[in-house]
Q: What sequence folds into this?
């Protein structure tokens, strides 16, 4: 039996620094001396030389040249982006996670599935993962070990065991609230479901896992595996698109990925020659099984707004002077004879009557909406039954996102869904810039937000802790770092603890991101 997920991770006692070790889950920033030379940590990959119990580890990569000054030591930088595992002691033998991460996989040229030369060796790895799992009680460790054990069971063909471990791993991962850990657990479970033939759910999980807030090289690996699932289904054009995206996301040279992708493209070409192109690629909404809500449509004849379905037919009759789009399954509408708004569901059923008196309304998100009786201030939060959940009036508000909302009362801060202040009301702005070009009102999916203090930017997390003090002229959240601008307008980077990583000497954000691609040696997760 797996232990139930716990709500609070235990605080580990202080321990002496240990050498940085790449695990199947880690992303390790590689620091260099102030002279500017960066030595890449040898992160084990799927195609590295086989490491057998008692064998030698994979050789280190050659030093890579860099043009930026990188500060800090490798161990400190790595700790900011990963949870390194301690090295195995000679008495205990190699750590099973390290052995698995360094395993040299062979793939069938048609199915692209792993081929096992020595099942007993994998069973031994699984047994040793179980030994590590038995005493583990915290959610992060159990999520990681259960999902890795699911990988081994899948490759061995024990799909029932793999499914059980994969599902429980996702429960523990979601209890941590950590985006990357949840994404890895979803991708590993998706691969099990793919092998079981549960393609609809597998593809949905692959799509959910592949967040734009993850490192590009991790996303490339996920696209590669999603492409294999499409190949199994005969969705050859869709598989080709995934493999092409995997290559596009690998901005730095990656011979191993290129080799695997070329093999995958050969497999797709062979299947197309035998069976044709297959179905037209699905949209993301189709893969995620998201039904499109009715959309507003103005009727010229009656001079009123109604709603139309995906096929263009009217599903809610035109009877409103004004409407808002459906969000979270509900939409605000205003009748010609009323100044206040009422709430309806996608069938047109009234959920909140206009006589509730809300002159100002915001769209529902996370089950709550901000409303105001005068439309200018004193915003409160209500649920879809019209019950006031947060009665404290705020001067300005933003929608809830993953349980938190940015609000202003004197200054900007943030509250949870019970109205408790998480971030104090002391900032002049709350606009989170991401490297994929998006700006988020409040917190990212990863639980980070950029705050503004009089024109200076910093970062807070979802607990309200200040990760980066608001002292930078400009700041952007990168999947494994924070990009910062210095006083002169040149750019550099901080690690995920807010410590200097690349000095602000580079001419643009793009150059910093390219430098990070060269400096970051991330493992290719065993999915």
A:
């Amino acid at each position: 039996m797996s232990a139930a997920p716990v709500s609070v991770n235990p605080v580990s006692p202080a321990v002496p620094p240990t050498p940085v070790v790449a695990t199947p889950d880690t992303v390790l920033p590689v620091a260099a001396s102030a002279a500017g030379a960066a030595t890449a940590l040898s992160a084990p990959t799927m195609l590295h030389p086989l490491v057998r119990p008692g064998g030698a580890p994979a050789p280190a990569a050659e030093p890579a040249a860099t043009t930026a000054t990188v500060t800090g030591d490798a161990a400190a930088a790595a700790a900011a982006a990963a949870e390194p595992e301690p090295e195995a002691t000679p008495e205990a033998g190699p750590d099973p996670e390290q052995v698995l991460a360094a395993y040299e996989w062979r793939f069938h040229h048609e199915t692209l599935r792993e081929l096992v030369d020595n099942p007993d060796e994998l069973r031994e790895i699984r047994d040793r993962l179980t030994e590590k799992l038995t005493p583990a009680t915290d959610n992060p460790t159990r999520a990681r070990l259960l999902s890795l054990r699911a990988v081994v069971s899948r490759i061995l063909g024990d799909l029932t065991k793999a499914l059980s471990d994969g599902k429980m791993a996702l429960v523990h991962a979601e209890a941590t609230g950590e985006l990357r850990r949840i994404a890895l657990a979803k991708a590993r479970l998706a691969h099990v479901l793919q092998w079981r033939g549960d393609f609809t759910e597998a593809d949905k999980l692959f799509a959910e896992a592949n967040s734009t807030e993850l490192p590009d090289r991790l996303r490339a690996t996920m696209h590669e595996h999603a492409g294999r699932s499409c190949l199994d289904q005969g969705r050859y054009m869709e598989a080709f698109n995934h493999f092409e995206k995997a290559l596009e996301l690998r901005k730095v040279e990656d011979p191993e990925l290129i080799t695997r992708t070329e093999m995958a493209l050969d497999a797709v070409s062979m299947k197309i020659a035998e069976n044709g192109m297959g179905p037209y690629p699905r949209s993301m909404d189709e893969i995620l099984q998201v039904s499109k809500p009715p959309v507003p449509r103005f009727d010229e004849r009656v001079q009123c707004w109604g709603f139309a379905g995906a096929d263009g037919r009217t599903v809610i009759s035109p009877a409103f002077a004004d409407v808002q789009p459906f969000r979270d399954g509900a939409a605000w509408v205003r009748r010609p004879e009323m100044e206040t708004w009422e709430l309806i569901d996608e069938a047109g059923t009234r959920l909140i009557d206009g006589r509730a008196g809300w002159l100002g309304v915001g769209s529902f998100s996370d089950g709550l909406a901000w409303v105001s009786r005068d439309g200018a201030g004193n915003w409160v939060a209500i649920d879809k039954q019209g019950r006031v959940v947060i009665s404290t009036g705020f001067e300005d508000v933003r929608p809830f996102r993953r349980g938190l909302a940015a609000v202003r009362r004197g200054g900007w801060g943030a509250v949870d869904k019970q109205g408790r202040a998480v971030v104090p009301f002391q900032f002049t702005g709350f606009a989170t810039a991401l490297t994929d070009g998006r700006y988020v009102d409040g917190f990212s999916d990863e639980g980070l937000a950029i705050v503004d203090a009089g024109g200076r930017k910093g970062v807070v997390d979802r607990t309200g802790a200040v990760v980066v003090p608001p002292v930078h002229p400009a700041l952007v959240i990168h999947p494994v770092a924070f990009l910062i601008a210095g006083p002169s307008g040149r750019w550099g980077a901080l690690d995920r603890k807010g410590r200097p990583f690349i000095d602000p000497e580079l001419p643009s954000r793009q150059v910093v991101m390219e430098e990070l691609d060269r400096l970051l040696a991330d493992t290719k997760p065993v999915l």
